[in-house]
Amino acid sequence: MRWLLAVLLRRHLPGIAVMSALVGVAGVTVLPSYATTYQTESARTAAVEMAAHNGAALVLYGRLDPPGSAAAMYLWEMGAFVTIGVAVVAALLAVRLTRGLDSDGTVEIARAAGLSPRLLAAASGVVLVVAAAAVGTAASAGMFVHRGSDGVTTEGALAWGGVVAATFLLTAAVTALAAQLVATVAAARGLGMAFLGLAFIARAAADTTPGSSPGGSPGTSHGSYLATAPDAFAGVRHWLGALSPLGLRGEVTPFGTVRWGPLLAALAAASVIGCAAAWIWARRELHAALLAPATRHTARWRRPTRLPVRSVAGFLARSTLGATLGWMIGIALLTGFFVGMGGDVVASARAGRLDGGLLEAQLGHGDPAQSYLAYVGTIVAILTAGYAVLHVTGHAAAEREGTLEVLRGTGGRPWRPLLGYAVTAAGASACVLLGSGAVAALVAPAVLPGDDMGSAAWQQVTGQWPGIAALAGVAAAAVGIGPRWSALAWAIAGMSAGLVLLGTLVKAPDWLIDLAAFGHVPVSGIVAAQAILLLVGVVATFGAALLVSRRDLAA
């Protein structure tokens, strides 16, 4: 088992290190800005009041309990982004360590070497536990730097690290179990993302339940912005939120009255679910699934036809059509939801109730409605960029699976597959943005005050495409160096997201914020920055083609 564990750790340690560094740096750099912004008791009271009465804030971030210390504000606002990001990485890593090992041949090699299926499942579990421990330790370390000030306590820092680690483990365990139901990596990844979507909905439903409060029973007065009338489903919604991995942050309340019970329950649930996934994995056949593909019994009745594709890009576009449609529909629905919740945020901004924090940093300049649409466009772009980078880094997985050996064996040039991945990623992201932009343009005029809100929403969403194209090119360049350099693409995308969302909050220099791939969208037309981003994408893509042509496969 040692050699397999060493191989898996060598593959995934760069990505784990990048994720842990981003989480730790977020705590070190962002927390002081909340202490600077909310220096007085009145400012903190106003922030808590705004959080309780703003529907968009409750849905996006959850509940915020008094007295609203800097650490509690960080946990409420930035903690939402940290836990969601960690959960997404956990789902992706769990798929790579389950169905991914089936598809890339690792399982066959391990079994041929005499390794039992149980040890194979155990090795994958160890890597997931190491990843959870690393990111949890980084989260705690980012808080320990500020221990004794800004409301940071030793117990709170440890609890926050435990929340991050438990969120990672619980999401990974559920995704690993779901991966046993389907036969492909793409289907397993889709189930993992669907679970996260349901987890977010459950958490939001619990936090918007009238009278809900951490550690209290449904019906306890909490000052929610919703009507305080009895809710027949309040108990159900409360328990759904308690069971959601994304609701663990609000149940434990690290920088309030720490409750260790929900954290221990989450870790126990992750252990049980993970063991169930390992038990099924160890007893099924290679490439088998509990749910048989729909074409298994109908393939013999179908007339054999050739795929109507003539290039690598065409093949990739056709084979990833389902995933692209799934991302398009999912992000479009989120876009409509975020835009629809913008009325409360814009009203609070115009009334001067956004006193500091992430939303104030995003909406504090210019017209609040326009600024909010720009903020939504940035969130949509970050999500779409995640899909684009994930698609391009699929080239590295294809190298490990042997797919590229077949392509090269047909006489194709070495750079054509990577170029195809980059082109289809840019095209798919354009389709996702077009769908989301259309939804935003339909919803914005109905909920946001002002003229031409529809065209502004369209511009702010679709205008983010040059930045995504640039990140796709950078991801191709990283893969061109070697498959193990894929983590570099994620690091650059993560830093771009952090700069555009938090740069103003942490008072980063303007020139540094301008280096981010997002946020370069004018109210109308184009700007020089967008042209530069497109140029970066093109140059990086051709550089990737040159790099991949000068190395061996999986080198």
What are the secondary-structure elements, in order, as H or E?
HHHHHHHHHHHHHHHHHHHHHHHHH
User: Major β-sheet, in short?
Assistant: none
Class based on secondary structure composition and strand pairing:
mainly alpha
| Poorly predicted tracts of residues | 213-230
Plain-language structure description:
The chain is mainly alpha-helical and 555 residues long. The protein is 72% helix and 0% strand. The chain has helices at residues 2-37, 41-53, 55-61, 70-96, 99-103, 106-112, 117-144, 154-179, 185-207, 234-243, 248-252, 260-283, 312-319, 321-340, 342-350, 357-363, 368-392, 394-401, 403-409, 415-447, 453-462, 465-481, 486-502, 510-514, 528-548.
Write the layout of secondary structure elements.
Layout: H1 2-37, H2 41-53, H3 55-61, H4 70-96, H5 99-103, H6 106-112, H7 117-144, H8 154-179, H9 185-207, H10 234-243, H11 248-252, H12 260-283, H13 312-319, H14 321-340, H15 342-350, H16 357-363, H17 368-392, H18 394-401, H19 403-409, H20 415-447, H21 453-462, H22 465-481, H23 486-502, H24 510-514, H25 528-548
Helix pairs in contact: 1-4, 1-7, 1-23, 3-9, 4-7, 4-8, 4-9, 7-8, 7-12, 8-9, 8-12, 9-10, 13-20, 14-17, 14-20, 15-17, 17-20, 17-21, 17-22, 17-23, 20-21, 20-22, 20-25, 22-23, 22-25
Any descriptors?
555 residues; mainly alpha; 25 helices; 0% strand; globular
Task: Give a concise summary.
The protein is globular. With 555 residues, the chain is mainly alpha-helical. Residues 213-230 have low confidence and may be disordered.
